[in-house]
Write a structure and sequence with these properties.
heterodimer; A: 494 residues; mainly alpha; two-stranded antiparallel sheet; globular; B: 591 residues; 2 domains; 20 helices; 2 strands
C-alpha cells in the first residue's frame, strides 16, 4: 500500500491539469494535457505493481466520512475488476491527447480541458466504492462528452450530442431513484455492504429494473442503442475513442458492480430477457454493421455487436463467461479505440468518411494499412491476439449455458469477420481511388507512436492473457459464489 | 516444459521467424539464406524423434506445439522438402514480401501438423489462411486481389467452423487435445470440425475456392499453395477422422468430380488445380476406409502427390512465365524450345497417372487396393475411373496441347527454358518422384501404420499398364473431340462471384445442373446476409431509433400541450385548480 491517497491523486490530477489549461490558454494547452495524462499514468503505476492478485478485498482504500446524516462517505478503492479499466482509461487518455494534436484547431484549451475532466470522471467512476460517488462521476462524465461532441464534432454534432445527453440522462434519472431507494432500504450506499445485504425479492426486482435503465443505455443494449452510432460518428476522434473505449464499459461495469452482487434474487426473472437482448445485439448489430457505408458508423455499430458479446458473457453467470466478458471489455477498448484512431488519422487528411471514397491505400500509405491490418486481424479474433481469448471464453461460457447461445455468438463472429475483412478490402486493397491520389496519406511518427502502445497491448494480452485474467480471477470467483449463495441458478462447470 | 529446453526446435518456427529476417539479408547472401532456411527446417525434421515437445499452459489448458510421431513426421518431411523445392523455384523473385508470405505459409503448415491440441492447431490454421491469401494478393493484379479476398473469406469461415467445434468440444469434454474424434461421432462438435477440415481439403461442395484462387497466384506462389493447405487438412483428417465411412464415398466422388471438371478446363493451371481436388479425393477416400493399409496409402499418396503436383505446377508455371500463356488453346509446339521443361513435366505427368516406376504408382495403388481389400467394389471402380481420367488429362491432353499439337504460330519469344533455379527445383522434385517409384521402401519405411504392401506385383503392373494403354488409345482416337476450347467452367463458386462475372458461357453437362442446386444455396446465404443487413439498418434508423426518439417528441408534445393551458385566462386556471382539488379529494376518500 502507498502512504498517500493514490486513488484520489490519480482521479483528480487530470482535473488539476484542466484547471491549469483553462488558466494558461490555447498555446500550451496540448502540452499541459500531455503532461497531465502522462503524469496520471505514471502516478497510477503503483496501483498495478503493488496489487495483490490473490486477495478479493478492496485495496488502496481511502474512506472519509462525508455526509454523515445519510451515512455517505467519500470512499475510493479498487479490486481486480476495476483496476484494468483504470489502466485503460489512463492509457487511452494519453493517446487521445496525442491523436488530437493537430486535429483540433478551434477553442483548443476548452477541448483539452474537457478531455481531462472526462478522464477524471472515468477514473473516479472505476475507483469509487460507493454508489453516491459512482453516480456523481457517472453524471460528471456526461458534461465533457456533450461538449466534445457538440462543439468539435462533425456536421450533425448538435443532434448527436443532444441525443446522447437525453438518452443517458433518461437512464440516469431512474438510477437516481434506485439509489435513493437503496439508501432508504439499506441504510448505506457502500458497495460491499450493500452486496452483503439481501433485500426482498420484489425490491431487488424493481431496483434491477431501475439500474437496468441506466446501464442498458450506456452499454448500449438493444433497443436503446441508437444514440451510439450518431454520437460515435459525429464525435471528434478523441471523443469517439473515449466513448467506445471507456464509456460503454461503464454500463457493463455497472452490471458487474451493482446489479449482479446486489440484486441476485432478481436474476432468474431477468436472465432470459438479458441473454436474448445480448444475442439480439450481437447478431442485429453485426448485420447492420455489414450494411454501413460510412466507416466511422461501421465501427460504431460494430461496438453494439461487441458489447452484446460482453453482456452475453456477463449473464451466462459462469466463470468462463464473466472472465471472458471483462477481458473482452478491455480488448474492445483497445481495439475499437485503435480503429477509431486509425480512421481519425486518415480522416484528417481526406476529410471523408465514406468507404466508397477510399481504396488502394496499401500503395499510398503502407505504414497505415499495415497497422490497420494488424488491428483488423485482432478484431476478427485471430489467435495470438487479444480478442481471440475473450471471444473464446465468452463462447464457451455461452455454450455451457445453452448451446443456442453459443451458435448465435459464433454466427456473430462470422459476421464480424466478414464486415471487418470487407472493410479492409474496400479501404486498403484494390486500386487507389482517384480522389485520394494527390494527398500525402501515410502516417507520421507521432501517429505511429500513438498506435504502437495499442499494438503492444493487443499482443501481450493475446499471447499472455494472464496479464489481465490474473487480476480478475479472484473477484469473479467471489462474485459467482455470492450469487450462488442466493437461490439463483448457477450453471456450468466453468 | 522449460522454455530453455533445446532438445527440440520447431521447424515451423524456423521458417516463420526466419521469414521476418528476409528483408534484412541483402545481396548475394540472400539467396543462400532463402535456400538455407527451408534446408535447416528439413534437417530439423529429419533429426526429430518421436515424443511430445513444446508444451505450454494457456487458459488453464495444455497447448502442445510439438506432437512428433510417425504420422506427423512423414508429413513434416514432405512439407519441409516442398518448402525447399518451392524456395529454389522462387529464387529469382525479387519481391521480399512474396518470400516472407511463402515461408510463413509453409511454416504454419508445419505448425498445424505438429499441433497436439486444438488451440495451436487453430492458430496455425488461421495463419495458413492469412499467409495464403497474402501469397495470392502479392501478384498485385486486380483479379488476384479479388481472388485472394474470396479465399480469405472462405477460409476464415472454415476457421470459425473449426473454432465453434473446438469450443463445443471443450465444453463437452473439458479437453482440448487433438486426437481421434470417433468417440464423439455425430455430435455437433464432430460435424463442425469435420466441415472445417473438409473445407481446407477442398472437398466439394466446399472446395470451389481452390480452382478459383490457385491459378490467380503468381507462378512461384501457386507452387507453394498446391502443397500445404490441402495436405495439412488431409493430415488432420487422418488424425481425427480415420474410418469415418461417409468420407469413403465422398472421397471417391471427389476423385471423379475433380477429373470431370478438369475435362472442361482450358487454363492449364486451373486444370491442374481441379486435379488436386481429384487426387485429394483418393486421400479422403483412404481416410474413410480407415484400415492400416488405407491410411498408409493416404499418407504415401499425400507425400507423392505434393512432389509430383509441384513438378506439374512448376512446369505449367514455367510455360506461363516464359511465354505468358495460360490457356491450352493458345499453346502448342513448345517441345522444340522447352525440351527440358517438357521432360521434367512428363515425369510429373507419369507420376500422377500412376505409371509404374513412378511415385504415383506405389502410392495410389495402396489406396485402391485398400478399397478392394475391404470389398468396396463401387469405390474401387470410381477410383479406377478417376485414374483413367487423370492420365487422360494430365498425362496426355495437357502435354499434348502444351508442348506438341498444333504449332499455333507463336510469336517470338517462343519460349525458352526457364531460369536455372526453376529447372533445378523441378529436377529435384522429379528425381524424388522417380526415386520413390523405383525404391518404394524409401517412402514405405516412414509410413505411420504397420502394414505390408508390395506394389510391384505382376497383377498390379499389368492392370495398370492395361488401363493406361487403353486410355492412351482412346485419347488419340478422340483427339479432335478433346480439343480445348476457350470455355470457362462454373463451379460452386460461380454463385458467390455472380456480381463480378455477370455474363459467362454455360458449362456442359448435367453435372453442372446438379451443382447449381448446391451453388444456389451458398449464393442465397451471401445474398441474404447483405439483404438482411440493409433491411435491419433501415429498420434501425426508421423504427428503433424513431421510437426511442419518439418518446422524447411525445414528451415535448405533452409539454407543449400543457403550455396551452397557461394562457393567462383566470377562468381556465380556476377550472384546473378545482379539477385538481376534486381529484385529490377522490384519491383521499377512495384510495
Amino acid at each position: 500500500m502507498t502512504n498517500y491517497p493514490i486513488l484520489t491523486v490519480t482521479t483528480f490530477l487530470p482535473l488539476v491539469g484542466a484547471a491549469v489549461i483553462l488558466i494558461l490558454g490555447d498555446r500550451l494547452a496540448r502540452w499541459i494535457a500531455l503532461a497531465a495524462t502522462l503524469l496520471t499514468l505514471a502516478v497510477s503505476a503503483p496501483l498495478y505493481l503493488h496489487f495483490d492478485k490473490t486477495s478479493t478485498a478492496l485495496q488502496f482504500v481511502e474512506s472519509v466520512p462525508w455526509i454523515r446524516s445519510w451515512n455517505i462517505a467519500y470512499g475510493m478503492g479498487v479490486d481486480g475488476i476495476s483496476l484494468p479499466f483504470i489502466f485503460l482509461s489512463a492509457v487511452l487518455s494519453v493517446l487521445c491527447v496525442s491523436a488530437s494534436w493537430t486535429a483540433v484547431e478551434t477553442r483548443v484549451r476548452d477541448f483539452y480541458a474537457a478531455l481531462l475532466i472526462s478522464e477524471t470522471a472515468m477514473i473516479g467512476l472505476f475507483a469509487s466504492t460507493n454508489l453516491f460517488l459512482f453516480y456523481i462521476f457517472w453524471e460528471l462524465m456526461i458534461v465533457p462528452m456533450f461538449l466534445l461532441i457538440g462543439v468539435w464534432g462533425g456536421p450533425s454534432r448538435v443532434y448527436a450530442s443532444v441525443k446522447f445527453l437525453l438518452f443517458t440522462l433518461a437512464g440516469s434519472v431512474l438510477m437516481l431513484v434506485g439509489l435513493i431507494v437503496l439508501l432508504y432500504a439499506g441504510g448505506t450506499l457502500d458497495f460491499q455492504t450493500l452486496a452483503g445485504m439481501r433485500l426482498s425479492v420484489s425490491a431487488q426486482t424493481w431496483l434491477f429494473l431501475a439500474f437496468l435503465a441506466a446501464f442498458a443505455v450506456k452499454v448500449p443494449m438493444f433497443p436503446v442503442h441508437t444514440w451510439l452510432p450518431d454520437a460515435h460518428t459525429e464525435a471528434p476522434t478523441a471523443g469517439s475513442v473515449i466513448l467506445a473505449g471507456i464509456l460503454l464499459k461503464m454500463g457493463a461495469y455497472g452490471f458487474l458492480r451493482i446489479s449482479l452482487p446486489m440484486f441476485p434474487d432478481a436474476l432468474p426473472l431477468f436472465l432470459t430477457p438479458m441473454l436474448a437482448l445480448s444475442v439480439a445485439a450481437i447478431v442485429y448489430g453485426a448485420y447492420v454493421t455489414l450494411a454501413q457505408t460510412d466507416v466511422k458508423r461501421l465501427i460504431a455499430y460494430s461496438s453494439v455487436s461487441h458489447m452484446g458479446f460482453v453482456t452475453l458473457g456477463i449473464f451466462s453467470l459462469n466463470r468462463s463467461g464473466i472472465e471472458g466478458a471483462i477481458l473482452q471489455m478491455v480488448n474492445h477498448g483497445i481495439l475499437t479505440g485503435a480503429l477509431f484512431l486509425c480512421i481519425g488519422m486518415i480522416y484528417e487528411r481526406t476529410h471523408t468518411r465514406e468507404i466508397a471514397a477510399y481504396g488502394g491505400l496499401f500503395k499510398a500509405a503502407p505504414i497505415f494499412t499495415t497497422l490497420l491490418a494488424f488491428f483488423c486481424l485482432a478484431a476478427i479474433g485471430f489467435p495470438g491476439l487479444n480478442a481471440f481469448v475473450g471471444e473464446f471464453l465468452i463462447i464457451s461460457g455461452a455454450f455451457t449455458k445453452w448451446a443456442g447461445l453459443g451458435v448465435m455468438a459464433v454466427w456473430g463472429v462470422v459476421l464480424g469477420t466478414t464486415y471487418i475483412v470487407w472493410l479492409y478490402y474496400r479501404v486498403a486493397l484494390g486500386d487507389v481511388n482517384p480522389g485520394l491520389r494527390e494527398l500525402r496519406l501515410d502516417l507520421n511518427a507521432r501517429e505511429v507512436a500513438t498506435l504502437l502502445p495499442l499494438v503492444v497491448m493487443a499482443l501481450v494480452i493475446g499471447l499472455y492473457p494472464e496479464s489481465v485474467l490474473g487480476f480478475i480471477r479472484a473477484p469473479v470467483a467471489q462474485l459467482l459464489s455470492a450469487i450462488a449463495a442466493s437461490p439463483t441458478e448457477l450453471a456450468g462447470r466453468m | 516444459m522449460s522454455p530453455m529446453n533445446v532438445d527440440w526446435v520447431h521447424p515451423g518456427f524456423v521458417l516463420i521467424l526466419g521469414a521476418w529476417l528476409v528483408p534484412f539479408v541483402t545481396g548475394a547472401t540472400k539467396r543462400w539464406f532463402l535456400v538455407g532456411l527451408p534446408a535447416a527446417a528439413l534437417v530439423d525434421c529429419m533429426l526429430m524423434t518421436p515424443g511430445t515437445y513444446g508444451v505450454m499452459g494457456f487458459l488453464g489448458q495444455e497447448v502442445v506445439f510439438g506432437r512428433v510421431d510417425p504420422l506427423s513426421l512423414v508429413f513434416c518431411y514432405v512439407f519441409a522438402l516442398m518448402a525447399l523445392v518451392g524456395m529454389i523455384y522462387a529464387l529469382h523473385v525479387e519481391d521480399d514480401a512474396q518470400h516472407m508470405a511463402a515461408l510463413t505459409y509453409a511454416g504454419s503448415a508445419l505448425g498445424a501438423t505438429l499441433a497436439g491440441d486444438f488451440l495451436s492447431l487453430f492458430l496455425f490454421w488461421e495463419l495458413m489462411a492469412v499467409s495464403a491469401a497474402l501469397i495470392i494478393w502479392l501478384r498485385r493484379k486486380p483479379e488476384a486481389v479479388a481472388a485472394g479476398f474470396r479465399y480469405l473469406l472462405v477460409h476464415v469461415f472454415g476457421g470459425l467452423c473449426l473454432l465453434g467445434g473446438i469450443v463445443l468440444h471443450w465444453s463437452q469434454t473439458g479437453s482440448l487435445a487433438f486426437s481421434d474424434m470417433s468417440p464423439h461421432a455425430g455430435s455437433a462438435a464432430f460435424t463442425l470440425i469435420l466441415i472445417a477440415f473438409l473445407l481446407n481439403a477442398a472437398v466439394p461442395p466446399l472446395g470451389a475456392w481452390l480452382p478459383d484462387a490457385y491459378p490467380e497466384a503468381t507462378v512461384t506462389g501457386a507452387v507453394f499453395l498446391t502443397a500445404f493447405t490441402t495436405k495439412s487438412a488431409v493430415y488432420t483428417l487422418i488424425r481425427g477422422f480415420a474410418g469415418t465411412e461417409v468420407l469413403m464415398w465422398w472421397g471417391a466422388g471427389m476423385a471423379v468430380y475433380g477429373v470431370v471438371y478438369a475435362v472442361l478446363e482450358n487454363d492449364a493451371r486451373r486444370l491442374l488445380a481441379y486435379h488436386i481436388v481429384s487426387q485429394v479425393g483418393y486421400m479422403v477416400c483412404g481416410v474413410g476406409i480407415g484400415t492400416a493399409l488405407a491410411l498408409n496409402g493416404t499418407s504415401a499418396h499425400a507425400f507423392a502427390h505434393i512432389l509430383y503436383k509441384a513438378v506439374l505446377f512448376m512446369g505449367a508455371g514455367a510455360v506461363l512465365q516464359m511465354t505468358g500463356l495460360r490457356k491450352l488453346s493458345d499453346m502448342g509446339g513448345l517441345y522444340k524450345t522447352m525440351p527440358i521443361t517438357l521432360g521434367l513435366y512428363m515425369v510429373g505427368a507419369f507420376a500422377i497417372s500412376a505409371v509404374p516406376l513412378f511415385s504415383g504408382f506405389v502410392s495410389k495403388s495402396m489406396v485402391v487396393s485398400a478399397a478392394g481389400e475391404s470389398h468396396h467394389a463401387g469405390i474401387f471402380l470410381l477410383l479406377t475411373l478417376a485414374s483413367a481420367g487423370t492420365f487422360l488429362h494430365t498425362g496426355l491432353k495437357l502435354p499434348w496441347y502444351m508442348f506438341f499439337g498444333e504449332d499455333r504460330g507463336l510469336k517470338a519469344p517462343k519460349g525458352k527454358e526457364p531460369p536455372k533455379n526453376m529447372l533445378v527445383a523441378m529436377g529435384i522434385a522429379a528425381a524424388a518422384c522417380v526415386l520413390i517409384g523405383v525404391f518404394p521402401s524409401l517412402l514405405y519405411r516412414h509410413l505411420p501404420f504397420a502394414a505390408d504392401y508390395i506394389p510391384y506385383t505382376p497383377r498390379h503392373v499389368v492392370a495398370t499398364l492395361g488401363l493406361l494403354g487403353f486410355t492412351a488409345l482412346g485419347f488419340f482416337l478422340l483427339l479432335k473431340q478433346l480439343d480445348p476450347e476457350p470455355t470457362v467452367s462454373l463451379d460452386t463458386d460461380w454463385f458467390y462471384r455472380r456480381g463480378l462475372t455477370a455474363t459467362l458461357p454455360l458449362v456442359e453437362g448435367a453435372l453442372a445442373r446438379v451443382d447449381g442446386v448446391v451453388a444456389q444455396a451458398s449464393d442465397w446465404v451471401v445474398q441474404q446476409a447483405l439483404a438482411m443487413g440493409e433491411w435491419l439498418r433501415d429498420l434501425d434508423a426508421r423504427v428503433v431509433d424513431r421510437s426511442t426518439v419518439g418518446l422524447g417528441k411525445l414528451t415535448l408534445a405533452f409539454g407543449q400541450g400543457l403550455r396551452l393551458v397557461a394562457d393567462g385566462n383566470a377562468q381556465h386556471y380556476g377550472l384546473i385548480m378545482a379539477a385538481g382539488a376534486l381529484a385529490a379529494l377522490a384519491i383521499v376518500i377512495f384510495g
